[in-house]
Design a protein that fits this description.
Chain A: One of its GO terms (biological process) is maturation of 5.8S rRNA. Chain A: This is M-phase phosphoprotein 6. The complex is a heterodimer of chains A (about 150) and B (about 280). With about 150 residues, chain A is mainly α. Chain A is built from 6 helices and 2 strands, in the order H-H-H-E-E-H-H-H. The longest helix of chain A is centred in the last third of the chain and has 19 residues. Chain B is of the alpha+beta class. Chain B folds into 3 domains: about 60 residues, RNA polymerase II/Efflux pump adaptor protein, barrel-sandwich hybrid domain (OB fold (Dihydrolipoamide Acetyltransferase, E2P), Beta Barrel), CATH 2.40.50.100; about 80 residues, OB fold (Dihydrolipoamide Acetyltransferase, E2P), CATH 2.40.50.140; about 80 residues, Ribosomal Protein S8, Chain: A, domain 1, CATH 3.30.1370.10. Chain B has a 5-stranded mixed β-barrel. Chain B has a 4-stranded mixed sheet with strand order 1-3-6-5. In chain B, strand 9 and strand 10 form a beta hairpin. Classes of the chains: A mainly alpha (about 150), B alpha+beta (about 280). At the A-B interface, strand 1, strand 2 and helix 4 of A face strand 4, strand 5, helix 4 and strand 16 of B.
């Protein structure tokens, strides 16, 4: 006995679609769209879109302007916005460093001390506080118990 | 100019549609119909005749043409609705057709989506400000439409402040809405315009002329003294300079330069540069 072919309408029903995988679903969808698209009537007219704005007609500059340093922020904006209009914005690959290297080194110097203070015992903390001018000298070596010599 | 108008009148009398390509940069009058380039080939030398109906559209190349301000679609032709010069811009990168528009002059502004305008705050009601932009109704501006504004952190905007913003909704059926941020949420220079300075009104055509990339007037003005200008597409210009006198001189120049010839303008600038 041959398998009875299920009709297209049956296949389109929701409960039949749950078992299908995404590819078959997409294929079915595509076929549907094609059928619907061919049935639609359309006017054989040129594609004329109507736009009321002058922005796409003429290339206009950015509306805020500043000259001879009157408003530096606006001058920066002018460069930015007009460059965007002229050509594709070509992102600056060089990242601006927020903090200079020197400052970073200075911070790390004191950072070692600050974190060290946190984990030091009360006795060792004294040695940190003695050096208040900012240079951090590591605390003295831990004093171990010395066995008395006979 | 007289012969151009005579030609236009002739064509209207003959009621034959002219090709848009032949009328570029010439004066067109409302009511004229223009043919797009792809239709000229279909028209025989007699012109205006009947074209056979085609049932298959496959062979036709669909070039997407944009009809800009002053033009309207009428069947498959362009109908001119404003008087002025017809302009055309070639498409920059491939996506076909280009733009046709009419370069007309007017003083009354009609809000258009995407335009940057200068508005005056007239009222504060609840969560929105009412901003007068020179159109038929005041635009609404939500207090959240500023950079860094949250429900707790309200922007510092009072009645009477000047706002530089752009329209997000602007059509004939709804009240226009404007915002002071772009689609990424950044201000990009929009927002409240600072104190002092002078706001005055000019025609819309002058604004477009001054904002053209190669405008000599702006370049010359910029060499005079330190100043700041904001142009709104609704015909409003705000200027500010160090002293009141300089601000007034600037305002007078910008208002007058519409009707001056190049020589007159150069004379005035040289006189100013001396003093």
């Amino acid at each position: 006995m041959g398998k009875t072919k299920l009709s297209k309408n049956l296949m389109r029903m929701k409960f039949m679609q749950r078992g299908l995988d995404s590819e078959t679903k997409k294929q079915l969808e595509g076929e549907e769209k094609k059928i619907i698209g061919e049935e639609h009537w359309y006017l054989d007219l040129p594609a004329l879109t109507k736009r009321q704005s002058f922005l796409l007609c003429e290339d206009l500059l950015y509306g805020r302007m500043s000259f001879r340093g009157f408003n530096p922020e606006v001058e920066k904006l002018m460069l930015q916005m007009n460059a965007k209009n002229k050509a594709e914005v070509f992102e600056d690959k060089t990242e601006e460093v927020d903090v200079s290297d020197e400052e970073m080194a200075r911070r790390y110097e004191t950072l070692v001390g600050t974190i060290g203070k946190k984990f030091a015992k009360k006795r060792d903390r004294v040695s940190y506080e003695e050096h208040e001018n900012g240079d951090v000298k590591l605390p003295k070596e831990k004093e171990m118990f010395l066995k008395p010599r006979d | 100019m007289a012969e151009v108008v005579a030609v236009a009148a002739e064509s209207l009398a003959g009621s034959r549609a002219r090709a848009a390509r032949t009328v570029l940069n010439q004066v067109v009058l409302p009511g004229e119909e223009l043919l797009l380039p792809e239709q000229e080939d279909a028209e025989g030398p007699g012109g205006g005749g009947e074209r056979p109906l085609r049932l298959n559209a496959g062979a036709r190349s669909r070039v997407r043409v944009v009809c800009g301000p002053g033009l309207r679609r009428c069947g498959d032709r362009l109908l001119v609705t404003k008087c002025g010069r017809l302009r055309h811009k070639e498409p920059g990168s491939g996506s076909g057709g280009g733009v046709y528009w009419v370069d007309s002059q007017q003083k009354r502004y009609v809000p258009v989506k995407g335009d940057h305008v200068i508005g005056i705050v007239t009222a504060k009601s609840g969560d929105i400000f009412k901003v007068d932009v020179g159109g038929s109704e005041p635009a609404s501006l939500s207090y959240l439409a500023f950079e860094g504004a949250t429900k707790r952190n309200r922007p510092n905007v009072q009645v009477g402040d000047l706002i530089y913003g752009q329209f997000v909704v602007a059509n004939k059926d709804m009240e226009p809405e404007m915002v002071c941020i772009d689609s990424c949420g950044r201000a990009n220079g929009m927002g409240v315009i600072g104190h002092d300075g002078l706001l005055f009104k000019v025609t819309l055509g002058l604004i477009r002329k001054l904002l053209a990339p190669d405008c000599e007037i702006i370049q010359e003005v910029g060499k005079l003294y330190p100043l700041e200008i904001v142009f709104g597409m609704n015909g409003r210009i705000w200027v500010k300079a160090k002293t009141i006198q300089q601000t007034l001189i600037l305002a007078n120049i910008l208002e007058a330069c519409e009707h001056m010839t190049t020589d007159q303008r150069k004379q005035i600038f040289s006189r100013l540069a001396e003093s």
